[in-house]
């Protein structure tokens, strides 16, 4: 249902001209991942958690819930009395477009960046486990493992003869093959791409969008199905959080560190980044768009991190506990930051 919501929201609001005005959003999301990763690394150095959840902590600090929560928060904010975003219907239309765009871009970064952090972390544990049984000398198969791309291993005499270009191509090929392309192009991402195509290409837009469009019935049908996305996402999110009640014990200070990063440090850094972009003229003077950019820094961790932990069998139960506490505190933190951000952009 999310992909249907993405198609309609973007198709109705995004044109080639309007897309050129929101080009900063992908950069802003990338900055949230980079800053979160750096802060997550600091949390690991300070709290010294078990090795098997180090990648999980970095992932929780870097990747926020850039889709589901925005789809829930934006409509509620637009309907509030005294909202600084003007007409509620227009606010809802553009707000949902920004939220679905954020969801699509966030999915790409999540499954290309965080996915490989957790994969590398779990691979590192497997390599360390093998090293305790075997001798320190590495076999050719171990050297060719995907994780050795990021580790400084001694190369054999034969590899020294290989040209630099060939070695670079080989490593790039391994990195590309390690990306989970199927998960990266999730239904929400595909829906956003379809929405972009319909909105940007005038011929498709004239056929499908608008009360006078020949295929207007298709727009109405997809929109009707997409309206069920918000309650469905809310139910699924709540069901996933219930697993945290049965999760294993997680280091308290690691949870505190993640909460501090996601609800204190990242929002403060986000204010600096967004205000700096506004000062430099990189962001348009749209309070709603600025609000969405700021809100991207104050969201709880992405729910799909739990799927990654389950996929690699590393920190699955600990991830459930982390999600439970971060989302329990999100009701307070996100509300406070949303109120402050609305005052800041008004």
What would you note in describing this structure?
- It is a single chain.
- This protein is mostly helical.
- The protein is 73% helix and 0% strand.
- The protein is globular, with a radius of gyration of 22 Å.
- The two termini are 33 Å apart.
Low-confidence stretches: 2-7, 146-152
Major sheet: size, sense and barrel closure? none
Q: Mean pLDDT, rounded to whole units?
A: 75
Radius of gyration: 22 Å
The 3D shape can be described as globular
| Class of secondary structure makeup | mainly alpha
Fraction of residues in helices?
Answer: over 70%
How many angstroms does the end-to-end distance come to?
33 Å
Number of strands: 0
Report the total helices.
18
Order of helices and strands: HHHHHHHHHHHHHHHHHH
Portion in beta strands? under 5%
List the defining traits of the structure above.
346 residues, mainly alpha, globular, transmembrane, transmembrane helix, membrane, PILS1/3/4/5/7, transport
Short description:
This protein has 346 residues and is mainly alpha-helical. Helix content is 73%, strand content 0%. It has helices spanning 2-13, 16-19, 24-47, 54-62, 68-78, 88-133, 140-143, 157-160, 164-178, 181-184, 187-200, 202-208, 216-226, 229-241, 252-279, 287-295, 304-312, 316-345.
